[in-house]
Amino acid sequence: MPSASTLAFQDPRIASTIVAYTTPPFDVAALARTNKTLSVPATRLLYTTLAFDDVTSAYLALQAVAHTPAIAQHVRSLQLYRDRHRPRVPLPSAFWHALQLALTALPALETLVLADMSGGPSQPAHTSVLPPQAPFRLRDARILLPWGPHLAAFLAHQPSLRTLQIEAFGGPPSPASPASAVAPSSIRDHLPPEQPILPNLTVFEGPLRVAHDLAASPLTHLQVCITSEPRGDPESLLPVLRGLRGTLRALNIQDMPESRAADIIGMVGAACPQLLHLGSLTLPPGNRMPCHAALRSFEKLRSLELDLALWNPPPPFSLQRALVAETHTYSPTLEVAVVWLSNMRVVWMVNPETGSWEGRHDGRGGWKAV
Fold first, then answer.
1. Does a cis peptide bond (omega within 30 degrees of 0) precede residue 69?
2. More confident residue, 191 or 181
3. Residue 124 in contact with residue 171, Cβ under 8 Å?
4. How far apart, in whole angstroms, are the C-alpha atoms of residue 125 and residue 174?
5. How many angstroms separate the CA atoms of 277 and 307, rounded?
6. What pLDDT is attached to residue 124?
7. pLDDT confidence of residue 39
8. Which of 111, 292, 367, 370 could form a disulfide with 359 if both were Cys (CB 3.0 to 4.6 A apart)?
């Protein structure tokens, strides 16, 4: 007659509890081979998240989920990276084919990360592997592939997306994707006129030209890059901001031209005075009055990022403190200021007891007070 402990291990509820308190992945893999009762919850947990930075391991995993529906049904997060310490070589076509098959076999996928999948600037990733009619509905996506029709079509059919990060810059056309040689398309091109674009998206980081499609999304956090391409200039940001006036709380503008900083801040303040965070303000070393005057438009600004990477020589901590205090005079609601230098980030915060600004920077061994 089986013992009480043996019978307990055959109870699916007890087995699930045991697996839940097991450290993945190696102990969980061992449990999956113990008995049938433990195998079910252990397999489910083992394949819930697939994250790899090794191409060979990723390829084997993609092959497994592509040809094993019993495994594929458990995958909720797929994260593929490139090891920065290894040579940047083009990925073989077999890898892209395995990725394409896997993406069509993951019905429960919620998170997708394809980070730096190219073999370098001359070897762009194959965006054609993204299925336009995927069997899953993503909630979070970080897809660092060049923008083009394939990526636009893929995103058009992901209405459940809440956070999205895509490549800030386009790349050269992919040899495997001749269609990418034409002008980059819009998400709207792949949807009926009456259908909303990403109606649940709250966080977006990517090219400004793509943000134009998202003016009707309920974005609370937006990071865009100013470029010289069509719909990538500062003026084209205005209609996007007007559409987001009711929801946007944080805005980051990368590569803000120093000569246009005051104009851009004024434009942003007129469209979205309710912002709580603004970055990255390219503060000129000379006449800062126009920038400070433009900051008065923000009624509730709590945090501000200042880009001082072009200052030569870099401002010492004492000058940074003075600059932050000076900025606080024009933006009295400010509580946190982040100063970006070429090789350092310094965070300044108001001491509630003394009222003075105290800084710390990210150095070797962690954060250090300045």
1. no
2. 191
3. yes
4. 7
5. 14
6. 52
7. 61
8. 370
Q: What is the pTM of this model?
A: 0.85
Candidate from 22-36, 67-81, 99-113, 189-203 with smallest mean pLDDT: 22-36
**pLDDT mean over 206-233:** 87
CB-hemisphere CA count at 13 Å for 22? 23
| Token pair 């077999």: residue | 94
Q: How far apart are CA 247 and CA 222, in angstroms?
A: 11
Which residue reads 């007891």 in tokens?
353
**C-alpha to C-alpha distances, 198 to 24, 51, 127, nearest whole angstrom:** 34, 26, 19
Q: How far apart are CA 34 and CA 340, in angstroms?
A: 52
Residue 331 contacts residue 295 (beta carbons within 8 Å):
yes
pLDDT digits (tens, 9 = 90+) for 135-162: 999 999 999 888 889 999 999 999 999 9
Integer CA distances (angstroms), 98 to 54, 105, 136, 153, 360, in order: 15, 11, 17, 20, 46
169: which 2 tokens? 């810059």
Number of residues that make up the chain: 370
- What's the distance, CA 178 to chain centroid? 27
Q: Are 348 and 337 in contact (CB under 8 A)?
A: yes
Q: How far apart are CA 103 and CA 336, in angstroms?
A: 42
Task: Assess contact for 115 and 144: CB atoms under 8 A.
Answer: yes
Residue with tokens 């500062």: 234
Q: Position of tokens 């509890």?
A: 17
Helix (H, G, I), strand (E, B) or coil at 5: helix
DSSP state string for 31-84: HHTT-HHHHHHHHHHHTTEEEES-HHHHHHHHHHHHH-HHHHTT--EEEE---T
Sign of CA dihedral 62, 64, 68, 73: negative
pLDDT tens-digit readout, 237-248: 999 999 999 999
Question: Would you say 179 and 157 are in contact if contact means Cβ atoms under 8 Å apart?
Answer: no
Beta strand 163-166 pairing with 203-207: parallel
Question: What are the residue ranges spanned by the domains of the chain?
Answer: 1-46, 48-173
The enclosing H or E element of 224 equals strand 221-225
